[in-house]
Amino acid sequence: MRHPIRTPAPVAALTAGLLLAGCGGPEPLPEVATGARPSAPSATTAPGAEAPPAAAASKATLGGPGTACPLPVSFGLAEKWEPKAVKDPENPDFAELTRRGPATVRCEVDAKPAGHIGFLQVWTAGKGSARAALEGFVKAEENASKAVYKETATGTLPVTEVTFTTYSELLEESKEARAFAVATPKGTVIVRLGGMDTEEHRAMLPAYELARTTLKVL
User: Fold this and answer.
1) What is the pLDDT of residue 39?
2) Which of 9, 164, 211, 217 could cysteine-pair with 75, CB 3.0–4.6 Å?
3) CA of 153: how far to CAs of 59, 180, 209, in Å?
């Protein structure tokens, strides 16, 4: 179901405030020209039950030297998706926005220039089990439910993935979300895909799959 364009979920508000490096003051979202959307499974289809879509073509890399966000990993970015590092994420004054369970947000990749309302968010946690960090992350997310975990791999790199549902009080409806986590020598990295609603979320899955399938530990 499509909705009038509204400001995305709470953590995405980082991009409209002082937390994102290089940002000015808030500005209204433009009208977004949306292209064709992938066909959606029926409402009774459980999140994660459908086969993953093909990954988008990579136009840039995030995480390595000289990129917008220094990270313990790198992965490909879809065309027109714009990354920005989160400024001062350890500041306790912003903990409600920058902390979730064991994780701290480090980077947000905005899909708006590509015609979608949503973000890829990159979070980091301490060293240890990727599964444990991801479970703590999801449990700490407000109104999250129906989490389904699975162990996957990118090449020889083991990855834990989760699909779950969140309830949007703004839209008064539930919507799909997903994330994957990988353990590195520098700690666990969690990449989460969020959208304004389930339709937007599904439309952005190729960018998420690109990040997951091109993931490399640095």
Assistant:
1) 41
2) 211
3) 22, 10, 12
**Tell me, what's the pLDDT at 169?**
87
Cα Rg for the chain, rounded, in angstroms?
16
Residues 216 and 128: beta-carbon distance below 8 Å: no
Contact 141, 166 (CB under 8 A): yes
Tens of pLDDT, residue by residue over 52-85, are 678 777 779 999 889 999 999 999 999 999 999 9
Cα separation of 148 and 114, whole Å? 29
- Residue ranges, the chain, pLDDT below 70: 1-52
Q: What pLDDT does residue 13 have?
A: 43
Q: In the chain, what are the helix, strand and coil shares in percent, each to the nearest 5?
A: 20, 35, 45
Of 33, 188, 174, 60, give the one whose Cα is nearest residue 117. 33
Do residues 165 and 148 make contact, with C-beta atoms less than 8 angstroms apart?
A: no
How far are the Cα atoms of 52, 69, 109, 151 from residue 83, in angstroms, in the given order? 23, 7, 4, 27
**Could you tell me the end-to-end alpha-carbon distance of the chain, in angstroms, rounded to an integer?**
40
Residue 5, H or E segment = none
Closest to 161 measured CA to CA, from 202, 124, 192: 192
Question: What is the model's pTM?
Answer: 0.78
Helix ranges (DSSP H) in the chain: 95-98, 130-139, 198-203, 205-213
